[in-house]
């Protein structure tokens, strides 16, 4: 395996805690009471798949995630009864860019730093390039390149999101390992011939999470976290 | 300036010496005598602009540089009277990938490592993503992202090569500084509103070089090399 390509939201960063943190600050600043910030994070995230599906299905052209997030932010605030017309565009833009300021899980930077000595490491995220670059600069995530939806112009789990990435890297599918905490992402990658590595993130959706606690197929690698992934790969 | 985007061939790496080195090995392996490897490097490089011009003009769709280089390699070997049918595809592919193994000028890694603490740093090269990633891995060039022609689907000096890069970074044009040893690259970037930095590479074309020895316009920054560039930027 010459390259490891990573799902990011959930696998590399704890999006739920990060969004809840910045949402709480936003609610406090604008005296918006009675909205649970974690529930708000979940509600915002729930609009993510339908928004991408519009692009995947061809109903709209490929549109970068910052724009989809911004549209969804207006919808979710409206659903909570917030009058967004009374909020400054800058404040909404600032909250939208909270996705650029998510923190990695504690094992990420150490594990990736070791893996980078061995292989190409890159995000294969549905997040756009600026989002990934800003996140990596802030959190010192040592990517070799920023790949993903904006480069392939396709949202996972569409096959071109994987096949174009392999072609861009100039490698064979087996030489590229998709790393994710989500079995469905790995399933789609495997159908395109990629290698697969599962790293569970059992609190991505909070302490009551019931999905993706275990591997659903015999993935090529199953690691406890990114340090364990580096142990398994660098040893081989 | 929040991001510095770099021309690569000539500005970051010494393509002429690198190609000559691997060409000399190739000629030796196949007993091809009487071809000067530096002249060969120049001849191969001379086919670079016409090949990209076919894409820029719309005569052919955007095609990544590894493919254009490979086509041009066949042409230039033919021009030297080499019968490429007698050579293995693997050997030709290996020589073609010499562009992935070019060495940076001595000031590059130190200067970029300091600049990276201050700003986003990325290649804005006509080279494709795999070429840039492999080059950076081998030479330890610490890019934050790989931008350039394959991401923007446009070859410099076409305006979209600059404007799409600025948009992808989510910045204003002035916040993005194009760094190049070539005045024409900076001229095109300035027309798109980008900031500009000139770093001369007076032996890119050998010791008798007569082009790009001096800045041709009042670029925003003129630095002696990448260490000096880091001095000027990190101080400000």
Explain the overall architecture:
The structure is a homodimer of 236-residue chains. In chain A, 47% of the residues lie in helices and 10% in strands. Chain A has 236 residues and is of the alpha/beta class. Chain A has 2 domains: 3-14 and 102-235, HAD superfamily/HAD-like (Rossmann fold), CATH 3.40.50.1000; 15-101, DNA polymerase, domain 1, CATH 1.10.150. Chains A and B meet through helix 7 of A and helix 7 of B. Chains A, B: Belongs to the HAD-like hydrolase superfamily. S-2-haloalkanoic acid dehalogenase family. Chains A, B: GO terms for molecular function: (S)-2-haloacid dehalogenase activity. Chains A, B: It catalyses: an (S)-2-haloacid + H2O = a (2R)-2-hydroxycarboxylate + a halide anion + H(+). Chains A, B: Keywords: Hydrolase.
Feature tags:
Rossmann fold; DNA polymerase, domain 1; alpha/beta
CATH architecture of the largest domain in chain A: 3-Layer(aba) Sandwich
Q: What would you report as the Rg of chain A, rounded to the nearest angstrom?
A: 18 Å
**H/E topology pattern of chain A:** EHHHHHHEHEHHEHEEH
Largest interface: A-B, 22 and 22 residues
Work out the count of structural domains of chain A.
2
Quick one: CATH class of the largest domain in chain A? Alpha Beta
In terms of DSSP E residues, the strand content of chain A is: 5-15%
Oligomer: homodimer
Structural class based on helices, strands and sheet pairing of chain A: alpha/beta
- The rough form of chain A would be described as globular
């Amino acid at each position: 395996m010459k390259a490891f390509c990573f799902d990011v939201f959930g696998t590399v960063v704890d999006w739920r805690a990060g969004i809840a943190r910045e949402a709480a600050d936003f609610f406090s600043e604008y005296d918006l009471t009675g909205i649970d910030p974690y529930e708000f994070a979940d509600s915002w995230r729930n609009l993510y798949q339908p928004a991408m599906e519009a692009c995947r299905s061809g109903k709209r052209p490929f549109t970068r995630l910052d724009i989809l997030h911004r549209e969804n932010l207006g919808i979710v605030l409206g659903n909570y009864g917030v009058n967004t017309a009374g909020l400054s565009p800058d404040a909404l833009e600032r909250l939208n860019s909270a996705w650029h300021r998510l923190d990695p899980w504690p094992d990420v930077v150490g594990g990736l730093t070791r893996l980078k000595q061995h292989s190409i490491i890159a995000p294969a995220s549905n997040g756009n390039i600026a989002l990934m670059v800003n996140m990596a600069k802030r959190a010192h995530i040592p990517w070799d390149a920023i790949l993903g939806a904006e480069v392939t112009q396709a949202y996972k789990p569409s096959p071109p999101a994987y096949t174009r990435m392999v072609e861009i890297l100039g490698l064979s599918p087996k030489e590229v390992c998709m790393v994710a905490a989500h079995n469905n992402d790995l399933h789609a990658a495997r159908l395109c011939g990629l290698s697969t590595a599962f790293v569970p993130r059992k609190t991505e959706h909070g302490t009551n999470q019931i999905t993706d606690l275990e591997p659903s197929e015999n993935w090529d690698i199953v690691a406890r976290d990114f340090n364990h992934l580096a142990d398994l790969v660098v040893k081989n």
